[in-house]
Structures are given as C-alpha cells and as structure tokens.
C-alpha cells in the first residue's frame, strides 16, 4: 500500500508580532464579534477581510430559530465582499471566536463549510488569502493560504 503524507504549515504569532495593518484588522474582527447575533449557541465569531482596494469588510455570525438557516461570520463577510465588490481581491482575513461568557485563549479555526467558501474565492481571484485566527485572546494562528488548512481541496478544476 502506498501512502501520501500531507504537510502543512501554520505560523503561531503573538499580537506583538503582527504588523500595524494586521493589528488594525484584528481590531475590526473584535469589533465585528461584538455585533454577533448568537442567542442560541452564545458562541460569538467576528471576521474582518482586507480587500485590495483598501476596504475592510466585517462579518459576524447570524443565527436563526431554524438553526441551519443561520450563517457563520466568515461566510457573512465573504459573501458580502463578493456581492459588493465583485472585482476586488481578498488579501487578508482575521477571525476571532469565543463563547459570550468567557474568553477562549486558543485559536479557533474556521469550520469546514467556511473553508470551502474561502477556497472558492481564493481560486476565483487567483491570489492566496492570508488567514489569521484566534480565540478572544492569546496566540494567533496564521495560514498563508486557505490550501494550508484545507488540503485536498475540491475546486472548479475538478468539474
Ligand atoms: N461559527 C462561525 O461563525 N464560524 C465558524 O467557522 C464556526 C462556527 C458560528 C456558527 C454558530 O452561530 C456558532 O458559531 C456556533 O457554531
């Protein structure tokens, strides 16, 4: 039997190691998380996207009494960006997530559906998206591309 090993690289950063632009994106993600509508899970997520036209888009999770009708913060932000600035490229994305009543200090990765949605835009724009994610405090994980956190990605080339 032949096996394939998949290696991936994630950088672990403290806030001090972020550039000024990244700290400001982190602040926008924190601001977005404060606007989450999460009355059911009480788990709040904020995302901020930096576009190549300089615009920053915020998104937060939006829940619904019919649970599956809600949407994650990352996809709220990404679809808004795609719908509002269809020709802009997403350069960086910052995500922060934590339960409402406590401050997680471990990085929370985007869910599988959000990774697939991010993949679509990375392929569409033909430019890697740097993805930063954290809890509410503590270290930040950085992936230089979606492909690092979704190896064996399904994309339009398979159709
Ligand atoms: N959530 C996100 O916003 N992003 C993720 O990547 C994972 C989960 C939201 C969905 C739901 O409102 C809550 O977190 C609990 O799953």
Any chance you could write out the topology, listing elements then pairs?
Elements: E1 11-13, H1 20-33, E2 43-51, E3 56-60, H2 73-84, E4 90-99, H3 112-125, E5 130-134, E6 140-143, H4 146-149
Helix pairs in contact: 2-3
The chain binds tetrahydrodeoxyuridine.
Characterization of the model:
This protein is of the alpha+beta class and 159 residues long. The protein has a single domain, classed as Cytidine Deaminase, domain 2, CATH 3.40.140. It contains 4 helices and 6 strands, in the order E-H-E-E-H-E-H-E-E-H. It has a 6-stranded mixed β-sheet. Helix 2 packs parallel to helix 3. The longest helix has 14 residues. It binds tetrahydrodeoxyuridine (THU). The site of tetrahydrodeoxyuridine has 13 residues, from strand 2 and helix 2.
């Amino acid at each position: 039997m032949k096996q394939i090993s998949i290696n991936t690289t994630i950088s672990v950063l403290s806030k001090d190691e972020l550039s000024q632009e990244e700290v400001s994106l982190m602040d926008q993600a924190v601001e977005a998380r404060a606007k989450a509508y999460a009355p059911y899970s009480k788990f709040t997520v904020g995302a901020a996207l930096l576009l190549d036209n300089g615009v920053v888009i915020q998104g937060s999770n939006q829940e619904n009494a019919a649970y599956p009708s809600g949407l994650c913060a990352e996809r709220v932000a990404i679809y808004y960006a795609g719908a509002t600035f269809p020709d802009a490229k997403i350069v960086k994305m910052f995500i922060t997530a934590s339960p409402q009543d406590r401050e997680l200090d471990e990085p929370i990765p985007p869910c599988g559906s959000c990774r697939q949605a991010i993949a679509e835009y990375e392929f569409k724009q033909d430019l890697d998206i740097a993805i930063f994610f954290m809890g509410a405090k503590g270290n930040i994980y950085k992936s230089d591309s979606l492909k690092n956190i979704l190896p064996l990605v399904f994309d339009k080339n398979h159709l």
